[in-house]
Amino acid sequence: MNSSSPHALEVRLLRVTQLQGHPDNSNRMGPRGRVKLRRHIERNDGAYPPIIVRPYKSGYQILDGHQRLAVLSDLGHEEVLCLIWPSDDETALLLLATLNRLRGEDVPALRGALMDELLQLMDRDVLLELIPEEAGELDDLLAFFGNQPDPFAELETETLRALADEPVTLTFVVEPGEEREVLDALDRLIEGRVGARSRGGSLVNLVRHHHGCELAHA
After folding, report:
1. CATH fold of 6-98
2. pLDDT exceeds cutoff 50 at 1
3. Residues 4, 85: contact at Cβ < 8 Å?
4. How far is CA 191 from CA 72, 136, 188, 195, 200, in A?
5. How many whole angstroms separate alpha carbon 86 and alpha carbon 61?
6. What does the pLDDT look like over 152-173, one tens digit per residue?
């Protein structure tokens, strides 16, 4: 395996025509995400994290940044900033599998606090154009944050306990045509309910109802 020294890495402007996507790239972004990524780049006057590539054949192969390259190409960039990471095929596959996926999980109360702080600085509609969340998800985060006494203080004093007690973010994979159906169903379950309302709460109630039906027919 090629264990490249960090000193071998370099950042350089490369022509878009020199870059090719990795055929095993599994990261995909829908039209909504692509629009938000474009807005981010435009908002920052064209600044963006370098695309990670490796020397490959007569050009360079992308290991991280396929979506950025697509947006930058749409914006008319003929050259893009790249971090050149020399690597063999095995290392390239490992980087491809991990660079987009190795990350922590958001603590809902803290992300709600972050959203609340951002709303002090910018209009809600502008924020929704830039963040991954939709309007309903933003409202859920803000509502949850509003119900917490002080998530920052709790994390500072008892970090591990606080993280263990905080709600978790669950990720599910559904077909493209099923996403809207699922979200609409959860929103319908929220309607008319008293107290804190969220899609997560609707999902929990749906599961509990299902379990109750199973026990009733047992």
Report:
1. 3.90.1530
2. no
3. yes
4. 41, 13, 5, 11, 14
5. 10
6. 555 555 554 555 555 666 777 7
